[in-house]
Design brief:
The chain is of the alpha+beta class. It contains four helices and 23 strands. Strands 1, 16, 17, 18, 21, 22 and 23 form a seven-stranded mixed beta sheet that branches.
Amino acid sequence: MIAKSEDHQSENVMNGKEEISHADVVPAHAEVVTEHPVESPGRGRVLLILFVIAAVSAIVYGVHVRSAAEKKLERATEESAVMSVRVTNPVVGAASQDLVLPGNVQAFTETPIYSRTDGYLKKWYFDIGAHVRKGQLLAEIETPEIDQQLQQSRAELERIQANMELAGVTSNRWQSLLAKHAVSQQEADQARSNYIAAQAAVDASKANVRRLEQLQSYERIVAPFDGTITARNTDIGDLIQAGSGSNSPRELFHLAAVGKLRVYVAVPEVYADSIHDDDSAAVTQDSSPGLKIPGRIVRNARAIDHATRTLNVEVDVDNSKNILRPGAYVFVHFGLPAEIHTVTVPSNTLLFRSEGLRVGVVRGDRVQLIPVTIGQDYGNTVQVISGLTPSDRVIVDPSDSLASGMEVRAEDATKGKS
């Protein structure tokens, strides 16, 4: 029974099947033999195919990942090779139509006061800062020499007048005698000539007296106009010399009319056509930057200075409240008409090249260096008169190596990447 069962099992194994015959019965006392199942060749082949497919898939996936990484690296390399720049658009018109230029303040009328006669200072009556009226006495000078000369001149005039009167009486007598033919015509004419000469001598003596009287009047130093004493350079007892008689005349006082002031401004040639007489202006100073003092353009030189290429402009300012002082350094604000054809760009867009001033403009993905003409400098921005349009994309903080035709990647300076 056992042999038959074994033959039947062997036959089943040869047919590729694992089975035990249930027809034969194994007795309880018989020995049971346990057989392990044997794998079929078809299953191993399937496993091999699956392994090959997995290996090929892994290789293909690895190649794909590597190719993608290489392409990504290539793109990154290409992008890093292209320069990234920030761009901005020019602003139409000037950033401010207020043209601000430095100016020098001068008194409307200002003069040094000298002596016209020699002597010693007897007394002075006003010091610096004093307000004086026209004709007020500022100082007195003692002139003993002039006084003596005037007395002498007056005595000489009296003598010459006496001689003239005698010559007149003599001339009249000779004319009477000539009518009676008692004297000759020559003698009568001589007497008449002596009288005329005596009259001329009197006139000359009178003129000398008036000259000395005028010099004596200069003993009184008076104010020539209403104003403020800005300097006093003398004191009691000083030796005073006439201003016209000395190589270095000594200024006694300095007088300035400060109720109205003149402010002189050098306007650049580019703005000369925008300055017109009777236009309004405003004056400010660093000591009170929030205060604007109104003024008016009264005149200009109507010619450009060859050295500075500027137009000299005078602005008159009412200073009745004594806000400004002569000699002060101020800023004059001119209101200019709007210039639509101009634009403003940041100052850090400018390129200073040997061929001239340039700005970098991005057109497409390429750079073009455009020559520009600068107008007013506002500090952080500058006015561009020609060369740019509002639609241009101007490069901010351009590199010194920037050149026309260079490929760049533009980013908006205010909104990020464009």
